[in-house]
Automatic annotation (TrEMBL), chains A, B:
Organism of this sequence: Thalassobacillus devorans
Protein name: HMP/thiamine-binding protein YkoF
Domain Thiamin/hydroxymethyl pyrimidine-binding YkoF putative: 12-91, 114-192
Domain of life of the native organism: Bacteria
UniProt-listed SUPFAM superfamilies: MTH1187/YkoF-like (SSF89957)
Name of the gene this protein is made from: ykoF
UniProt cross-references to InterPro entries, sorted A to Z: HMP/thiamine-bd, MTH1187/YkoF-like, Thiamin/HMP-bd_put_YkoF
Amino acid sequence: MDNQVCNGTSRIVGCRFSVHPMTEDFVSVILGALEEVDTSKVWMQTDDVSTCIRGRLPHVFDVTQAIFAQAAKTGHHVAFSGTYSVGCPGDTEGDVYMSEDDTKVNNSDIDQYAACDFALYPLGSDSYMDMIMEQVEAAKQRGLAVESIHYATKLRGEAKEIFATLEQAFTVTQEHNSHVVMTASISANSPSHKKETDNE
Amino acid sequence: MDNQVCNGTSRIVGCRFSVHPMTEDFVSVILGALEEVDTSKVWMQTDDVSTCIRGRLPHVFDVTQAIFAQAAKTGHHVAFSGTYSVGCPGDTEGDVYMSEDDTKVNNSDIDQYAACDFALYPLGSDSYMDMIMEQVEAAKQRGLAVESIHYATKLRGEAKEIFATLEQAFTVTQEHNSHVVMTASISANSPSHKKETDNE
């Protein structure tokens, strides 16, 4: 494996994810969300288990955030599960999307409470606990509630701040590591959400 | 990080997962599945995003397979997303469950077609592509359809063979690597499943 440190956002980034609306009407929630999202700056393929998008880092986060936001806007309990990757051996197809500029094309600035479990794996690095701790501090600065849980870190608060934290954590980590993987499970409109305000 | 090779199944293994039934009635599907599953041999904790179970390797796979099987049995479109981990720095709580024997306590041998995306990450290893290829061959021997996709491997076929493949892949890999993470997204009763038999 090539362990060289690559140059930030010039590398192709991907996310394989699923959106699960907890309703019999899941097909129209998913299709409706996709219709509202501009996916023109990423390569995209969907099958019976997941959707894979690939392109430049900002657009991969822009599109996943927008799809989650649109699905959550329906009010249904919606869960997003995804794995973001960069530097995977053999990742080449879809390079045409690497010529896109940095401008995000979706506006996902809706108010939406969400909770997220995320885990960051800089493969081949043995100092990743420090990186995770730095990102935990950054999440707190964004007003998110942060909790350390087994195998992951839990973030609670505004969905846009959660995605901003995920994007920053991934960006910073991949600047120092050739191959980085980050998992995120994000939930909206759950009857079991325990918001911070519940205690006030 | 401690990179020593540890002795197989004597280590604590965990899985953080969510089960998403695509129905308004998701609460009763999840609770109903949990009621039918014997979780006595694992440490378990559930919150608003996910459930975490921890214990000996066979029981972590036994319980996740059983919960998926019970939820799928309802006939609803059900998705399971989970991350299996072993050797995570700081993993200690719940060690009391490590004294359990090897006997699995759930019977999940139902006929259930499923499709699964899985990805195996032996952290700190640079030869993991070979390990994955070996497990792909083993999956084919079990009668599963195997497809290489971006960032993952897709398995299609009987759910019990999918879980057997996941358990074997994880077992073999963690025998040679201190810290191993494996993600799995498994889908049952999806209207977009394209079964192998569709082409016959």
